[in-house]
Amino acid sequence: MHKTRELEVHGHTVLVEVDPEPGREGRAALWPTVGEYPIYDGFLYSTMTTDHERNQRFLAALAKLAPGRRVLDIGTGEDLLWARESVQAGARTAVAVEVIADAFHTAAGTLETLDERDMITLLHGESTALQFAPRADICVAEIIGSLAGAEGAAAVLTDARDRHLAPGGLVVPHRAVTLAAPVHLPGLLPGQPVAFAEEALPYLQHIFDWHGSPFDIRLRIENPNTDALLCEGRPVEVLDFNGDLRTQQRTTTRLAITRAGHVDGVLTWLNLWCLPDEEPLDALRMKTNWASIYFPLFDQPVPVAPGDVLELTIETALSDDGIHPDYHLSATLRTTGGQEHHASLTSPHHGGPFRADPLYQALFPTA
Ligand SMILES: C[S@@+](CC[C@H](N)C(=O)[O-])C[C@H]1O[C@@H](n2cnc3c(N)ncnc32)[C@H](O)[C@@H]1O
């Protein structure tokens, strides 16, 4: 069954294929990626403040690192979350920075009501454009994407290390890694159409309005069927916030297929460490606000068997805003029968083509 909805984007009508079934707890759902755009609202912030897997890791890191220290909270959100928690954990002071005006104003209202208000300084703006004195001992920044670096963490935290952190200062989180595995999209959404969740449409509208026109936005899959993965995931993007942090990177990985099926793309997801020695948060296996991101590669699904290999290269380079990376994927699928299939995809943070391949043509049909 088909259901389409219309969005009006700067005077143009955009048709969107929508899942006719309402969303429910545990059901797979297709969304646009949301975290890397300035469209956060109360609902998105609440999915984070109630994320136990995430919050317990940040709290454990702050309990260990914040006491007696000056903390800088980059991207504090409307709840001033990590600035408040840092002070409650014993930080000397906290500076909280938020770029979204509405979130900043909500945070400012909350700050006035807090007992710890004299210990927290709230600033409006982008951390990369602000000056802070004195420098902080700890920088906490939950600007991690479902695709680890998509929210600009590499550029923002490189700048924070250079200009905002005192010598010997530390960043929380410690490390973020994106893993990838080959998949067939319909297998991730068993028994469901490949269509956006109805609840996602306001976010699609906000992102297209913000950009000024539609584009082939990255596809976020909530609760994917993990049986659809054709092998274990392997790292394709590594962000060491307290080590060798790079704003551009290129990783080639060999994904050796372990079960028969079809491949039309790759699923990627986040592993996150707030402290170096903890069990990482695994966004695919744990209940968390981070979801997985699907990238289409092959227009026609390619049949595969154990022993076939998908060699995948993912490159990141900063987009024209100097903060958010564009991703470029290239892949060669080699079958044990001697066949080779090549594919590539550029996934810009913003802009780029609209309806460039059959998947996006199906998601955004024409009348
Ligand atoms: C994923 S949310 C996290 C909100 C809150 N800190 C939490 O953990 O629940 C990221 C927030 O960081 C803000 N942000 C991202 N980069 C920023 C920057 N460079 N400077 C200031 N705010 C930033 C976004 O607007 C958004 O509110």
Topology:
Layout lengths: L3 E6 L2 E6 L11 E4 L9 H8 L2 H14 L4 E5 L6 H8 L4 E6 L2 H13 L6 E5 L11 E6 L11 H12 E8 L2 E9 L1 H4 L12 H11 L7 E4 L11 E7 L8 E8 L4 E3 L1 E9 L7 E2 L9 E5 L5 E3 L4 E10 L6 E10 L5 E8 L10 H6 L4
Parallel strand pairs: 4-5, 4-7, 5-6, 7-8
Antiparallel strand pairs: 1-2, 3-10, 9-11, 9-14, 10-16, 12-18, 13-17, 14-15, 14-16, 18-19, 19-20
The structure holds S-adenosylmethionine.
Description:
The longest helix has 14 residues. 21% of the residues lie in helices and 34% in strands. The chain has two domains: 221 residues, Hnrnp arginine n-methyltransferase1; 102 residues, 3-Layer(aba) Sandwich (Rossmann fold), CATH 3.40.50.150. Helix 4 links the parallel strand 5 and strand 6. Strands 3, 9, 10, 11, 14, 15 and 16 form a seven-stranded antiparallel sheet that branches. It has a five-stranded parallel sheet with strand order 6-5-4-7-8, with helices on both faces. The chain has 367 residues and is α+β, with helices and mostly antiparallel strands. Bound molecules: S-adenosylmethionine. S-adenosylmethionine (SAM) binds next to helix 1, helix 3 and strand 5. The site of S-adenosylmethionine (SAM) has 22 residues, from helix 1, helix 3 and strand 5.
